[in-house]
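Input chain follows. Return C-alpha cells only.
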Amino acid sequence: MQKVFKSAQEACAGVPDGCTLLAGGFGLCGIPENSIRALADLGVKGITVVSNNCGVDDFGLGILLRNKQIVKMISSYVGENKEFERQYLSGELEVELCPQGTLAERIRAGGAGIPAFYTPTGAGTAISDGGLPLKYASDGSVAKSSPKKEQREFHGRTYVLEPAITGDFAIVKAWKGDRYGNLVYRHTAMNFNPMMAMAAKTTIAEVEVLVEPGELDPDHIHTPGIFVQRIYKGENFEKRIERRTVTQAVGGAK
C-alpha cells in the first residue's frame, strides 16, 4: 500500500527504453508536466506514446519529441506542434492517427479487458481500408502504411473492428490524491486521464494536493487507487494553454 514517492524523478525511475507510454491530458490541459520533465531528464528512449496529441514544441510531450525520445505516436491530431509535423513528414517519427472518440474507446476498452470492438466511425474510409501513411521515408515516399481492418455489418450498417490499447506505463495528472492512490480530477482536466490510468500495467500519478486516506469523499473519487501504483505531489505547475488570442480595441472603438 506504500505508493508515495518523494519526487517525479523517483516515481518515473525504472521506466524502460522501448516501452509503450500512455499520457493523460488534452492539448496542454491536465497533462502530467512533472512526469514528462522527469522522463526527459532520465533520458528514456525509443518510446511509443499514446496521447491525444503531442503538446507544443517546447512544452508537454513536445519536450520528449524534441529530444528524439519518441519513436511512435498514437494520437488524434498534430495540434500546435510544428516539430511533430516535421518529424512525421521527414520520416523520423511513426504516427498512427486515430479518430478521437475511437482513440478514447480503444484505451477504455484496454482498461476494461476488452480486446477489440466494432465502431461505425471510419468504416468505408482509409481508416478501415488501409493505406494511411504511418511513416515516410527520407525522400518523401511512404515507407509504412496502415493495414486493412476487418469490417462487419450490424443492423444494416457497416462497422470497423478496432483493437484495444494498453500500455506498459501511464503518466496522469490529478487535482487531489491520497496515499492509497485514489484520484480526483478537476473539471476539464479530467479528459483522458482516467482511462489512461486504467489501461497501463503501472500508473504514475502526479497530484497538486496529496492528502491522507479518508480525506477524500468516496463518492467524488474518479480513479480508484487499485489502478495507481505510484503517486507523488507535483510542483511548479505551469498550466499553459496552446494558443492565446488577444483582442485589442483600436481607433477609439468601445
